[in-house]
RNA sequence: UGAGCCGGCCGGGCGGCCGCGGCGGGGAGACCCGUCGAGGAAGGUCCGGGCUCCACAGGGCGAGGUGGUGGGCAACACCCACCCGGGGUGACCCGCGGGACAGUGCCACAGAGAACAGACCGCCUCCCCGGUGCGCGAGCAGCGGGGCGGUAAGGGUGAAACGGUGGUGUAAGAGACCACCAGCGCUCCGGGUGACCGGAGCGGCUCGGUAAACCCCACCUGGAGCAAGGUCAAGAAGGGAGCACGGGCGACCGGGCUCCCGCGCGAGCGUUCGAGGGCGGCCCGCCCGAGCUCGCGGGUAGACCGCACGAGGCCGUCGGCGACGGCGGUCCCAGAUGGAUGGUCGCCCACCGAGACGUCGCGAGGCGUCCGGGGACAGAACCCGGCCUACAGGCCGGCUCAUCCC
RNA sequence: CGGGGUGUGGCGCAGUUUGGUAGCGCACCCGCUUUGGGAGCGGGGGGCCGUGGGUUCAAAUCCCGCCACCCCGA
């Protein structure tokens, strides 16, 4: 599940200075698994997101929330689901804020 | 060879590509180079400390913890050795292991009786009544019923019944007495630092269990936690409810004139009483003492120190049964905070396969090659010492029992 | 980092303080009632008391260690 805030719709963030960098955050709850599996899921998602940051609008803020089935998924499966969600986010939505 | 016991250790390896964090160096900078980068449990957060802040005036009551002895340790509820009890043929294992004559409570059901003992059935002496047999008769034998007593051998209940076995004894019996055994207490001797052990004698013969029920005894314990605590920067807006916001005396003047009486303002001052707090259980006592408590609303959640040299690891040697300690040498070994320590491939190595082929064997099966699968539990957050829990697979050492061979 | 609570038939809860018989409501099954169903009445079945060990003659209850879930404070 993905949440995106693009730079045009977002207010100027007061907490950090250069607000034009694209930022990504991950939410992996305790329902996903123990600390080891939560770390593994987050690290895989981070490496996958690293290659896809260029495709996002400049200054976006993206939140990726991992569901419990991500614990048993392979990296290829995670990449396919991530691309599908990103395509739905960046495709037809006219406004800047979407889920 | 087969069963088994104990202790210690490892926790996949190598390489390619792309990345992350700390430290050091270079550079004006982008960045580059070097180096280090999770665990035996990092886990649960059950104990004990270090460190930091607060308090420190003590006393009493209470609460919590520990519980054989002697050592180890900074300390411990941990560890070592030993003692005692229980289990096992044995190597070994298990034990919250002080006190039940300081007191209180509880012991269901069953059973006569469950805790200063008591007496249901039964056994026995004696007395009374009834009737039978024998006898000419007084009476005797035995039966049934009742009563005053004596008993605790036998019966049965229970987890547990006031020593066990054999004998003497007796109306019947009983540690009433005797022998042996079990247990308790006292004295003495020997061993041990001690818990305790061994032996001898004597005693009354014999007093249940439960303290992981209250309790008693001995010892220990101030509170909070790195979001501790400190420095810097930035920002902010107040308003509401409740309790309290105070009382007495003195200093002014007059009269008797070191004190008392009369009078009036008492902001500040001194003294006394004081809500509340220090004092996170309560009381006495000590100290501070004019604000305290609870909602609503607003602001910040940035940087640095603490913060990585420590009861530190490894090696050797000496002392000790051991836990551990002394000495010498050597090494520096994670430090994030939107939280690094990774992602993805290839080869090898364990391991698995009722997959294929070859080979050995009568056979169960073994070996080799290929193929497929496949890598335990688990992620530091101030730091140590332990405990507990999870863990695929493997390695090493010591020991016991059984069987066979020499 | 610190503190607290819960676990008992299919579901929701008592019983734990002071140890000996596990109980209540709904649900389920059978019978009666009704033309039939519901409601009602009567009867019945079903629980390793989260788990492992210990104390005790005896443990859901007392003690210790784990497991799972929930809540609160900084």
Provide structural commentary.
It contains two helices and four strands; from the N terminus they run ββαβαβ. The protein has 99 residues and is α+β, with helices and mostly antiparallel strands. The protein has a single domain, classed as Ribosomal Protein S5, domain 2 (2-Layer Sandwich), CATH 3.30.230. Helix 1 packs across helix 2. The longest helix has 16 residues. It binds two RNA strands through strand 2 and helix 1.
List keywords for this structure.
single chain, 99 residues, alpha+beta, Ribosomal Protein S5, domain 2, 2 helices, 32% helix, RNA-binding
Concise synopsis of the structure shown:
The protein is built from two helices and four strands. It is an alpha+beta fold and 99 residues long. It has a single domain (2-10, 19-89), classed as 2-Layer Sandwich (Ribosomal Protein S5, domain 2), CATH 3.30.230.10.
């Amino acid at each position: 599940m993905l949440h995106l805030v693009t730079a045009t719709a977002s207010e100027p963030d007061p907490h950090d200075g250069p607000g034009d960098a694209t930022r990504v955050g991950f939410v992996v709850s305790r329902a996903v698994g123990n600390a080891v599996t939560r770390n593994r899921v987050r690290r895989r998602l981070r490496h996958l997101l690293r290659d896809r940051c260029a495709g996002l609008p400049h200054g976006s803020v993206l939140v990726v929330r991992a569901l419990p089935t991500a614990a048993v998924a392979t990296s290829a499966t995670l990449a396919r689901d991530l691309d599908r969600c990103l395509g739905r986010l960046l495709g037809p939505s006219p406004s800047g804020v979407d889920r």
